[in-house]
Design brief:
mainly beta, Thrombin, subunit H, 56% strand, globular
């Protein structure tokens, strides 16, 4: 089994405008071997009740990945998605697959 390459968008604050609001610069980076799966019914219901966001997919992130996945935008299959909540991570030695982290994403609108 092999994942696909997705694009992870990161925002970095570069300054403040005349109205004292932050100015951001967006950078993009490709992340390889990411699994894309369906969320469980419980994940969808729980997240909808907690944050009002409807989970579209769950991403499986490969072991050793050091990217920040909280509050990020990701792109795959020609669509943009936003990460929802904090990623959950397993212990590398106890997870038999090449993926040890799960990230929930909702459609970016």
């Amino acid at each position: 089994m092999r994942g696909i390459t997705i694009i992870l968008h990161d925002r970095t604050q570069t300054g403040i405008d005349a109205f004292n609001r932050p100015i951001y610069m967006e950078t993009s980076e490709e992340v390889e071997n990411v699994l894309i799966g369906e969320p469980s019914t419980d994940d969808i219901t729980t997240e909808l009740n907690l944050s009002g966001k409807r989970i579209a997919y769950t991403l499986g992130i490969p072991k050793g990945d050091a990217h920040t996945w909280t509050n990020r935008t990701v792109e795959f299959w020609g669509e943009r998605f936003e990460t929802v909540g904090a990623p959950t991570q397993g212990i590398d030695a106890l997870v038999p697959t090449p993926w040890n982290k799960k990230v929930k994403v909702a459609r970016y609108e």
